[in-house]
């Protein structure tokens, strides 16, 4: 394990009776990375995170977080911030009391006023949490997770229920923490967030990784797509074009720039207008859908 490795997982198995939710899973996360752990339904992502966060024991395998066993909460917890998918705040406590309580339980030092200011909840400090909107509770979740500027931050669906301004503010704070060396583990159903912000992605399916790497590495696993239609009486398009059910044509390619240029050169040579032309690189959601399609086929 390198001195820059914050999370090191080797051969992780998590079983519930005869059902193996996680099977021989191995990965590592380096200091300062934003790593997105994504998965199809039932992929084992939650079980993996529960072990890494110290909430569940592994059936087998080794897990080290910040150089220690994550179950050793007295050592690991003061260095880790966790934003769970659902808050567990007492409805009778005020916003300030909730932030102060969870901050003290974490073992980190900070100012309640500072963290509430980060999420624009300073004016709600004396409001009981039971009176907050869903978006305000999510902002309070985030405030308590970043209390004391943790070395490692887990964000589980952090922007669910947030408006655009709150999302932008959250990601600005995450970036500031990353600039200061914080490592971030993200889980989200908003794949565009993972595509835009993750340094690397682990994409789980049926208990193990189907893909792991940078966004560019994952999207290169599938071809890009060029689509167009031709006017009546146009000459036959290049042989790489495949006719579609709606009378349009598609070209699937791992060389998008080259094949698009060839198509445009062909159209120019023949004086043909390419109607409805679109050329789109592969996106992370395409990779995700392909995994789902494989599951259906199998």
Automatic annotation (TrEMBL):
Cellular compartment(s): Cell membrane
Top-level taxon of origin: Bacteria
Organism: Isoptericola halotolerans
Record-level Gene Ontology MF annotations: ATP binding
Name the record gives this protein: ABC-2 type transport system ATP-binding protein
Domain ABC transporter residues, every copy: 7-231
InterPro entries noted in UniProt: AAA+_ATPase, ABC_transporter-like_ATP-bd, ABC_transporter-like_CS, ABC_transporter_ATP-binding, P-loop_NTPase
Classification via Pfam families: ABC_tran (PF00005)
Primary location class: membrane
